[in-house]
């Protein structure tokens, strides 16, 4: 399996939680789905626990897997600050979403945060869906999202560096400036290469620059729905955003899949 270090946030995991994500109802969407189904949850590519921890805090038992030791380390650090009761709700494992093996099946399986798009090779994408299918209970739900290309993407996607935000890191007191470059696109294989640049000014005035090159497979609607169905799933619901808007309207494609 081809995994780029960038997609595992090897250089910049510690800045992941500094990102301010506007509340688009994502968390309440997952909490609501979890309440409806009850039972155990598997969250694939759980990262630093952005979704995992609120689910555990709401009382759900969550098994989180991620391939990145850097992201899992941060999640474990946060988990250790929480109560024993919440800690007991979380079970973490370093594993790839293509070929993980858990000794149980789940009522709800999630791949949030467009993490499925980190899989660049067709065989890995298919393997992942098949592995999820295998771990899903007969009446369970599998929910994942990908971003919706706003048009047929081409080289015009490429854009120069743009500063996204600047803030003080509350943990270190350093000033962090984040930029984004839409660096390259492979139109034939439908892969975009965004790059993040973090420029850090430490409290003592020294400067540091860290870069993360991501590679994300993008899908058009028919391509992703064909793959979901080829893996044996039925698409029970689909949305363009977490407020339940139509799949044609949103910035994302969110699929609720069943066996
Ligand atoms: C954009 S982050 C999303 C993290 C979290 N789900 C969230 O929404 O905040 C993508 C995550 O996918 C993980 N990842 C990338 N490739 C993976 C793979 N092959 N198997 C498991 N996790 C992977 C990365 O380590 C990272 O934590």
TrEMBL record:
Residues 41-140 form the Methyltransferase domain. Keywords: Methyltransferase, Transferase. InterPro entries: Methyltransf_25 (IPR041698), SAM-dependent_MTases_sf (IPR029063). One of its GO terms (biological process) is methylation. The keyword Transferase applies. GO terms for molecular function: methyltransferase activity. The keyword Transferase applies. Gene3D superfamilies: S-adenosyl-L-methionine-dependent methyltransferases, Vaccinia Virus protein VP39. Transmembrane segments: none annotated. This is Methyltransferase domain-containing protein. It comes from Bacillus bruguierae.
